[in-house]
Amino acid sequence: MSGIELVVHDLVDKALDDLGLAGGGDLVEKLAFPLPFAVITRILGMPEIDTARLRELTGLLIRLGEPGGDSRSKQDIEAADAEMFELVSDAISRKHRERGDDLLTALIDAEDDGDRLSHDELVAQVAMLYVAGYETTVNLLSGGILALLRNPDQLGLLRATPDLDRNAIEELLRYEPPVHLARRITLHPHRVGGHEIPAGSVVLASLAGANRDEEFWGPDAGQLRLDRENARRHVSFGGGAHYCIGGMLARIQGRIAVGGLVRRFPGLEQAGEVRWNGLLSLRGATHLPVSV
Ligand code: HEM
Questions:
Q1: Most exposed residue of 60, 170, 195, 234, measured as fewest CB within 10 angstroms of its CB?
Q2: What digits encode the pLDDT tens for the residues 207-232?
């Protein structure tokens, strides 16, 4: 087992212990958010930061990715962006003094042909890695578990078949993608599906749509089938030059958390209304009450 798998197992075990002691609770609060947040914080080696404030800020920042703007005022989002910059900038400055065996120290030291990242470039990269590291995986965990609760036959199958864990995560990524849209701007004219797209167009590709395209997946594209043979061919991590760099990390967390949860609690049930974040692109639950 790799070092990161051990860390994830440890964090999942503790979260499940808490859930068990309490008899249940909000799965987003108890597992889906804290797990990826702790993992990316540890990998980056982020110095202590005001987590509650950071979460509020990223909750606003992810609205930047919404197609057609967002109901929140542009000013609110710009203010959140500026505050986030300060927060991460301060953490990096502290890191210069408290170096460690972590990604942040490596990024500070990174040099390419004598070229170093400027402070502002470093802040932008780290903020992106940090937010991409948890705001996506939280949706994989909550959306994946909800999909299983809504498909009890598949939940039962997974519980009885640990060998299915890897494929199950691929199918959950396909069926309930944590990121629904990828964005591109065309540099040249393109022809796609008989349509001409001129140069300079903003293109929103529906990853969720492609993941359920019956022409590719067949007539059962809309069904959750954890043993689907080609499940791994989903496009939930995008494609091409911008393909997600955190896919493997997300898969590890999904496999250990979802497999661990369903096997630890045979009586796992939804225990109240799901609340959604209201987003199109990073669509996900903000509350998922369960009893165990
Ligand atoms: C289930 C979890 C995740 C999903 C569904 C996801 C999905 C995506 C998608 C759709 C893209 C855009 C790809 C494109 O435009 O073609 C992306 C990019 C990216 N992701 Fe993820 N991601 C996840 C987890 C992570 C994690 C854990 C990290 C960090 C450790 C991460 C870091 C990034 C970064 C830095 C990019 C930008 C890559 C680039 O533009 O070159 N992601 N991800």
A1: 195
A2: 999 999 999 999 999 999 999 999 99
Q: Is the CB of 181 under 6 A from ligand 1?
A: no
Residue 143 lies in a domain: yes
Q: What local confidence, expressed as pLDDT, does residue 244 receive?
A: 96
- Taking the C-alpha atoms of residue 3 and residue 22, their distance in angstroms, rounded to an integer, is 29
- Pick from 91, 72, 69: which is nearest to 80 by CA? 72
Residue 267 lies in a domain: yes
The pLDDT assigned to 191 comes to: 95
3-state percent helix, strand, coil for the chain, nearest multiple of 5: 60, 10, 30
Burial (CB < 10 A; 0-12, 13-18, 19+), residue 184, is middle
* Tokens representing residue 37 in the block: 């947040």
pLDDT tens digits for 108-158?
A: 988 776 788 889 999 999 999 989 999 999 999 999 999 999 999 999 999
| E strands, 198-272, in order | 202-206, 269-270
Q: How far is the CA of 207 from the centre of ligand 1 (A)?
A: 13
Any domain includes 196:
no
DSSP letters for 25-78: EEHIIIIITHHHHHHHHHHHTPPP--HHHHHHHHHHHGGGGSTT--SS-HHHHH
- Structure confidence by residue, pLDDT tens digits, 238-292: 999 999 999 999 999 999 999 999 999 999 999 999 999 999 999 999 999 999 9
284 close to ligand 1 (CB < 6 Angstrom): no
Which domain, by its residues, includes 87?
A: 3-165+249-291
Task: Give the separation between CA 173 and CA 216, rounded to whole angstroms.
Answer: 16
Task: Work out which ligand 1 atom sits closest to the CA atom of 177.
Answer: 5
Q: How far apart are CA 45 and CA 47, in angstroms?
A: 6
250: Cβ contacts below 8 Å, ≥ 6 apart? 36, 136, 137, 140, 237, 244
> What pLDDT sits at residue 193?
85
- CATH code of the domain in which 26 resides: 1.10.630.10
